[in-house]
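The protein record now logged underneath.
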Amino acid sequence: MSGNLNAFGITHLRHVDLAVPDYQTQRSFYTDLWGLTEVGTDGDLSYLAAEGSPEQYVIRLRRAGEKRLDLISFGATDPAAVDALAAKLASEGVQLVSQPDKLQTAGGGYGFRFFDIDGRVIEISADVETRQHREVEEGESIPVRISHAVMNSNDPTRTKDFYEKYLGFMLSDTLWGEHMGEMMHFMRCNDWHHSLAIARGPHTSVHHVSFELRGLDEYMRGTGRVMRAGIKKVWGPGRHNAGNNTFTYFLDPSGNTMEYTTELERLTTDEWHPSVYDIADPMTQDVWGTADPMSELIARESFNDPDRGVFVAPPV
């Protein structure tokens, strides 16, 4: 398994934090419909957990005048790894947003924040308290955990190189198109096929955030529940080739794409060789053939609005 362990002690994706103007609408979307549990609020913050996950929360909503990505948080093995990575990044010219310190958000812990090459705020943390979670039951169509986050970049290869060089992420696979070149890089920090992916988009923004369901039946039930509620379905249900995971994409009330997935591949070999998949092959996008063919129209739905938070630290 050593080839799948992160060189700098990054362990997993913890949470994605979003600022939203339609705060109450979003809270009810994520709790009543998407299947997350609000575990607490703090002023203009709402902390949303996945029932099957020990993470304190997987989505944080912040009431704000404009929509933005506040940050993406990854776990680290221990405070020593946090300190070492912060020192390394600073010495290599990466702009830190905060120095390693006690975290003031739910679950506490010890961490720091920095800007990635596109201006996203990334948090690395250790010693965050876990929460009482439970086994999601058969037929229960709610997220077990956060699966991965995909971000748009107008230079996805430059962004991929940043995560490889500075954060030790490893490339799992790439999607490629004849006219557009490299379209998406899937990157891992553990044995899951990807915890992060970088998509080609016209600007820096959230492409989608994905949630793992218990199994195929639960994934289809969840997909159906959200469809019946009249939420705009962008694409799916289907099964991707790269990562082998199922997918259904929906737009949340503020236009961020959210995905239900299951059965994401786990890479158990050190000798994994990344593949390049041609997006012109219908089997690349959907091996089942149940989703509409990928089109410019579908792709555009996940471009999202240009992120207002680029190189701007969130207030909390």
